[in-house]
Amino acid sequence: AQSVAQPEDQVNVAEGNPLTVKCTYSVSGNPYLFWYVQYPNRGLQFLLKYITGDNLVKGSYGFEAEFNKSQTSFHLKKPSALVSDSALYFCAVRDVYGGATNKLIFGTGTLLAVQP
Amino acid sequence: NAGVTQTPKFRVLKTGQSMTLLCAQDMNHEYMYWYRQDPGMGLRLIHYSVGEGTTAKGEVPDGYNVSRLKKQNFLLGLESAAPSQTSVYFCASSTRTEQYFGPGTRLTVT
């Protein structure tokens, strides 16, 4: 079965420190992977995606993610965290059995808390 | 561009009442989706549409119906609301790769 796992419900980091939000996936074939961010009382905003090519993907707000096929992971990273990065982060993978529907399978989310 | 909009933003229903949530997008996307978000469960797909006049069931379709009479609109209906349908509902529309989300509707069923 296809799935996405975000093993940490919450990640705490001090402002200025590097941050990592973990994501692992289970799908057959070549995955399309995504990160979205949700600020309080808002909808999800697209951060970045991996479809093919370079394993290091750069996205919005200084975030990047590294695709690792052997570890089936797609961890989100940022070199220096800001208090304004505090939000709920979702990893998602495209449903490979969805045909041309572009359905996504979401993880349960990781709350990032950046302390000043 | 307004992107994806949802109405209403908040609603309180009594058990057994009905309502319709409206989603509109101005990006000419073919694909549209309805999700519900519950604590600790991420987003779960309720129904989706791959084009005007088409709809299909997602992961948790029971208790909901949808219609896509116009390409830009995707309606989600609750015929007889239940407390288990208390949730935040998000609509999204999609290109071939990226989904764009609306701001959400917070629904409480008492």
Summary, kept brief:
The complex is a heterodimer of chains A (about 120) and B (about 110). In chain A, about 0% of the residues lie in helices and about 50% in strands. By secondary structure, chain A is mostly beta strands.
What are the defining features of this structure?
heterodimer, A: 116 residues, 0% helix, globular, B: mainly beta, 4-stranded antiparallel sheet
Please write out the topology:
The complex is a heterodimer of chains A (116) and B (110).
Chain A: E1 3-5, E2 10-14, E3 19-21, E4 24-26, E5 33-38, E6 44-50, E7 56-58, E8 64-68, E9 73-78, E10 87-94, E11 104-106, E12 110-115
Chain B: E1 4-7, E2 10-13, E3 19-25, E4 31-38, E5 42-49, E6 56-57, E7 65-67, E8 73-78, E9 87-94, E10 99-101, E11 105-109
Parallel strand pairs in B: 2-11
Antiparallel strand pairs in B: 1-3, 3-8, 4-5, 4-9, 5-6, 7-8, 9-10, 9-11
Largest sheet descriptor of chain B: 7 strands, mixed
Query: Would you list the SSEs of chain A in sequence order as H and E?
Result: EEEEEEEEEEEE
Number of helices of chain B: 0
* Count of helical regions of chain A: 0
The ordered H/E elements of chain B are EEEEEEEEEEE
Amount of helix of chain A: under 10%
**Radius of gyration of chain B, taken over Cα atoms and rounded to an integer in Å:** 13 Å
Q: Count the strands of chain A?
A: 12
